[in-house]
Amino acid sequence: MRLRHIRGAEEAIAESPYVVQEPEAYRGRFQELFGNGNPIRIEVGMGKGRFLMEHARQNPAVNYIGIERYSSVLLRALQKLEEGKLPNIYFMRTDAKDLAGIFAPEEVERIYLNFSDPWPKDRHAKRRLTSPEFMRVYDQILAKDGVLEFKTDNRELFVWSLMSIPQAGWQIRAYTEDLHHSDMADGNVMTEYEEKFSAMGNPICKLVAAR
Ligand code: SAM
Hints:
Layout: H1 9-15, H2 30-34, E1 40-44, H3 50-58, E2 63-68, H4 71-83, E3 89-93, E4 108-114, H5 132-141, E5 142-152, H6 155-167, E6 171-176, H7 192-199, E7 205-210
Parallel strand pairs: 1-2, 1-4, 2-3, 4-5
Antiparallel strand pairs: 5-7, 6-7
Helix pairs in contact: 1-4
Bound molecules: S-adenosylmethionine.
């Protein structure tokens, strides 16, 4: 994701009704924010948010929260949401490492990681969103029977994740190294990165993990 400062991004985010401004204040009561008792699913590193917005459109009885750490990227998601407003989606500008202070234990029903930054150098492995360190964060907020779904076209990151996720005490419930030609493709919603990389001919990998 290209990062550059966009003038006015901070102000637009601070004023947006779709951004949870003080997420810690909702810890344990995010359903009140939505005004219903529906389950909450989050995408960590949502980018421009198309995947989550399409899910929100298709599933009005599910609440969605998109997590993104960069204002310039979050602004793009907000602009897209303005084109077609949805009652069951909010965004947060937050780093994934802080999620356990934002959501209460078991408050999240499903976690999506899509095309997470690969951080190819070994010394940066802890920054990968499928590292044991991040899996321990997700462990603190995900419902007991909840699942984490991860998609990427980066085979090295995928193969590494098939090892790093079990290292944190999780189980890989299902996986494919060619999602679009597998029986896991049913109901697949493409992300921005997925469209781009699959158009280039890259196979898409997907895994589903649970504890
Ligand atoms: N999920 C989108 C997709 O598939 O089109 C965007 C993928 S993009 C490669 C990864 C996104 O994750 C970037 O927008 C980046 O800023 C965000 N990100 C990376 N590390 C993060 C972290 N620790 N916390 C929150 N967001 C993060």
